[in-house]
Amino acid sequence: MASTVRLTAAQALVRYLSAQFIDIDGVEMPYFAGVWAIFGHGNVAGLGEALHAAGDALPTYRAHNEQAMAHAAIAFAKASRRRRAMACTSSIGPGALNMVTAAGVAHVNRLPVLFLPGDVFASRRPDPVLQQVEGFADATVTANDCFRPVSRYFDRIQRPEQILDSLPRAMATLLDPATCGPATLAFCQDVQTEAADYPAGFFERRVRRIRRPAPDPREVDELAERLRAAKAPLIVAGGGVLYSGAETELARFAAEVGVPVAETQAGRGALAWDHPMALGAVGVTGTSAANEAAAKADLIIGIGTRLQDFTTGSRALFAGGLVQINVNAHDAAKQGAEAVIGDAQAVLEVLRARLTGHEAPAAWSEAVRQSVSAWNRDWDAVTAAPADNALPSDAQVIGAVWRKTAKDAVVVCAAGGLPGELHKLWRPRAPGGYHLEYGFSCMGYEVAGGLGVKMADPARDVVVMVGDGSYLMLNSEIATSVMLGLKLTVVVLDNRGFGCINRLQQSVGAAPFNNLLADARHVAMPRIDFAAHAASLGAASEKVDDIAGLEAAMGRARASDHTYVIVIDTDPDISTDAGGAWWDVAVAEVSERPAVEAARAAYEAHLKTRRDQP
Q: Which of 38, 362, 567, 607 can bridge 492 by disulfide, Cβ–Cβ 3.0-4.6 Å?
């Protein structure tokens, strides 16, 4: 008879998670780096008891906000290139719902996180319990049903033995390069504490590996023929290049075959910024070099990209034929693309062998080099410190921060105007040095995300760039970084409101309204001392007056062994004019404002440029 172990369901789950290992380039390490937990009545007695007993076998980390701790877990997975993950547990009501936004971030960005929200009593004996959401027409509904549309795998654990089936399914989701994303196990609070006899074999140490799906040779042959015939081919590198670890192969392929490479937000840093074939960012927030190439290319090869509207200029930027290399058939088939299904590195290796001796036309390569030279001149101009005492632009702040960071530093950002400027202007020097959440564009990700990046790669400097609006939304994990001794450098750009959306609002003909603090309903303008606030959370901090002061402060921050926050006032009205492409933001069809009517006419003209128009 097979041996069994009597454990509570929570103890069994924790023991199973502790036994999952991952082989990364021949080195075995725990797949789960730990569990983020904010305890409440719905998880403290079950999962709390089990996690305490696990100790260092599955470390537990305390955060200050459930959404923030989930952002940290997401950033950890992204910085680990989806090869490792973390779990997050909360109580049953507000704590669980706080994690739903972060689950959306993980879902859109295809990143592995295991969510373990507490749930109601499966027995229903004490219903309605504290924080329970009651569905008048459906007694099975709980707050955790909100996780369903933002989870790749969802289950509700209502009996202890159900984890025998559910946990392996969750692991399969987290590890699959094609379906990777968040898995949610809503864990009924009474079931967490109930015991069962589990097979001892369920808890044996298991070493996992991330598979590399090989492409169909016929699809690669067809792509090779198209490349041989192309006069102006272009690669658009997405996040799949980095998750595959294919950046070295991509650099070799681009150099040998002479195909220039543009990068999405998720793919930024796939090539070093000064690689001969690197065009930089593409799309709405792209460089002039990349977007000129995208408009002229007769063959565009997407690698590991989901073709978000920012990448394609709302489907108006790409003019040539489209091929998609992707592990996920859903992404590979988008926008009428010819599909090559497979891992990015595996496909590039086979494709390069098929193209031995072939090189793209020299005229195309020369045109690309001239475009890059022109863009570099624009970069120098927009990132240089202002000559007068005017408030600096985001671009000028980015230039100063880039000049003063280590070559292997990681820049972290998320929503607002900064991601667009960073996509254009940050010059990645090393793989993994550019970490932006722009799939869900989630304000509040920045500081918590920086914490997760630092946990994944503690040897690298982590520089978080965040606007005042995002900082005010979610800054609590500055205190967590101090508590854990995980140093961050946080640069707060204070433009006194939501400057990015204020600019967008005016671009569609509307009046400035409810975005900048000055344009919002107020009795008195708030006077927010961000440096003092950061200091109250335990960070070292200072406010600087100008770009020279920022560069000096960056030196002090780099020398510090403590989380360091630097605040600088910036101009809310300035963004980089160079580069960029059209973005489809619908404009009011009827308005009393002439500016809106003019914007609508321009919008309708742009709609006709979309590549999917008849």
A: 567
Question: Contact at 8 Å (CB) between 300 and 323?
Answer: yes
CA dihedral (510, 501, 440, 88) in degrees, to 10, reads -130
Nearest to 205 by CA among 20, 395, 32: 20
Report whether 596 contacts 516 (CB < 8 A): no
Q: How far is CA 250 from CA 256, 271, 347, in A?
A: 10, 8, 10
Residue found by looking up tokens 């799949």 in the block? 240
Residue 223 has what pLDDT?
Answer: 98
What is the model's pLDDT at position 611? 74
Distance CA 298, CA 277 (A): 17
CB atoms within 10 A of CB 409: 18
484-495 tens-digit pLDDT:
999 999 999 999
Burial, 136: exposed, middle or buried (Cβ in 10 Å; 0-12, 13-18, 19+)? exposed
What amino acid occupies position 335? Answer: Q
Q: Are 475 and 447 in contact (CB under 8 A)?
A: yes
State residue 387's pLDDT score: 84
- Give the amino acid at 553: A
Structure tokens that stand for 101 in this block: 């936004």
Residues forming a β-bridge with 411: 434, 463
Cβ–Cβ under 8 Å, residues 379 and 431? no
Cis ω for the linkage preceding 128 (within 30 of 0): yes
- Specify which residues 376 forms β-bridges with: none
- CB burial of 525-547 (b: ≥16 within 10 Å; e: otherwise) equals eeeeebbebbeebebbbbbbebb
Domain 4-208 maps to which CATH number in 3.40.50.970, 1.10.1200.10, 3.90.950.10, 3.40.50.150?
Answer: 3.40.50.970
List the structure tokens of 343. Answer: 């891992």
Q: How far is CA 337 from the centre of its chain?
A: 24
Name the pairing type of β-strands 564-569 and 183-188.
unpaired
- Write out pLDDT tens, residues 304-337: 999 999 999 999 999 899 999 999 999 999 999 9
Measured in degrees and rounded to the nearest 5, phi and psi for residue 443 equal -60, 140
Q: Taking a C-beta distance cutoff of 8 angstroms, is the pair 496, 444 a contact?
A: no
Domains 4-208 and 384-569 share a fold: yes
First to last CA, the chain: 68
**Selection from 414, 489, 419, 492 nearest residue 451 by Cα:** 489
CATH homologous superfamily of 217-374 = TPP-binding domain (3.40.50.1220)
Q: How far apart are CA 519 and CA 497, in angstroms?
A: 9
Domain boundaries of the chain, sorted by first residue? 4-208, 217-374, 384-569
Low-confidence ranges of the chain (pLDDT < 70): 1, 612-614
384-569: CATH, from 3.30.200.20, 3.40.50.970, 3.30.565.10, 3.40.50.10260? 3.40.50.970
Give the contacts of 373 (CB within 8 A, at least 6 positions apart).
none
Q: What 8-state DSSP symbol labels residue 277? A: T
pLDDT at 1: 61
Who's near 57: CB < 8 A, 6+ residues apart? Answer: 18
Max CA separation in the chain (angstroms)? 82
- Cβ-count burial 62-82 (b if 16+ within 10 Å, e if not): ebbbbbbbbbbbbbbbbbbbb
